[in-house]
Specification:
With about 290 residues, the chain is mainly α. It is about 70% helix and about 5% strand. The protein has one domain (about 25-270). It has 12 helices and 2 strands. It has a two-stranded parallel sheet with strand order 1-2.
């Protein structure tokens, strides 16, 4: 068995030259995924530490929709008292952990969304990688805007749910609706996260268009069923049952989907022009795609 001098001296083998198109092996993909996850977790931890310092302000922000809803209920009903039940001795600590985590998730959204995009980026062609800055510039703000819209819709949703508390007729007993802090917090945070993720629709639609999964023609063909599904999703995903909260989610989602369809149409048009310039028979490819859809 022959042993080279380099092995005897303990020299490392030279690293393979990276692929120009960014192709990687399975092991390299797993290492890349681990690195991206680690960066996202570090960003979340740092933001949680920062949010922990502003817990008082965050708690007041989450308390404001409840105060607004209770004030609206008290203006129409004098037989109902709304209170808060902390549950047990560990509830305040768990409350603070949950609030700071969601605040960190929102604040760090540009970072972890970019890490998601950067992980997918090597699978794209060079002329498609220029969308990285556009992704970074829109994904985070859209998530934050969605959370803000959910925050605006929250008081109405809470008011509608509280209005279902039954009225006690011909009695001097005053009804008390004691809200469990943990359940109340889950309601608020779930509503905010649902709105934030829903506003990412154009980002992921364009992403699927870039990788060739969804074409603009297919999006146009599926527009009506998708918008119908958006309204069904809004009705199911929003914790409250009032139509106002559902419309606050469904209407922006539908508008964002239409905008993403227009952007996908522009991308397909430019992609088709580049293929025609390269001498590719685009019409043949389109006919094959239409027959496959049928």
């Amino acid at each position: 068995m022959s042993i080279s001098i380099g092995q005897l001296l303990g020299r490392k083998k030279p690293k393979p030259t990276p692929d120009e198109e960014g192709r990687m092996t399975l092991v390299e993909h797993l290492r890349e995924l681990r690195g991206r996850l680690l960066k996202s977790v570090i960003a979340l931890i740092i933001m949680m530490i920062v949010a922990w310092q502003f817990y008082g302000v965050l708690f007041q922000l989450l308390q404001h929709p409840l105060d607004t809803a209770v004030a609206a209920i008290n203006a129409t009903r004098d037989d109902l008292t709304v209170g808060v039940n902390w549950g047990n001795i560990s509830s305040p600590l768990m409350l603070q952990l949950k609030i700071t985590f969601v605040a960190a998730l929102v604040a760090a959204s540009p970072i972890w969304l970019y890490q998601l995009w950067a992980f997918i980026l090597p699978g794209l062609h060079k002329n498609e990688r220029k969308w990285s800055l556009a992704f970074l510039g829109t994904a985070g703000p859209l998530f934050i805007i969605g959370v803000f819209v959910g925050y605006l819709a929250m008081p109405k949703g809470i008011q509608v749910l509280l209005s279902f508390t039954p009225i006690l007729e011909e009695t001097t007993i005053k009804t008390q609706n004691l809200l469990d802090v943990s359940n109340m917090l889950d309601f608020i945070l779930r509503l905010l996260i649902v709105f934030g993720l829903a506003f990412e629709i154009p980002v992921f639609v364009i992403l699927l268009n870039l990788v060739g999964v969804l074409s603009a023609a297919r999006l146009s063909k599926w527009r009506a069923p998708i918008i119908f599904f958006i309204f069904v999703f809004a009705a199911v995903a929003t914790p409250s049952i009032d139509p106002f909260t559902m419309l606050m989610l469904a209407v922006p989602m539908s508008a964002l989907f239409i905008i993403s369809e227009l952007i996908a149409r522009l991308i397909d048009r430019r992609r088709k022009a580049s293929l025609v310039a390269a001498g590719v028979d685009v019409e043949k490819i389109e006919r094959a795609g239409e027959s496959k859809d049928d």
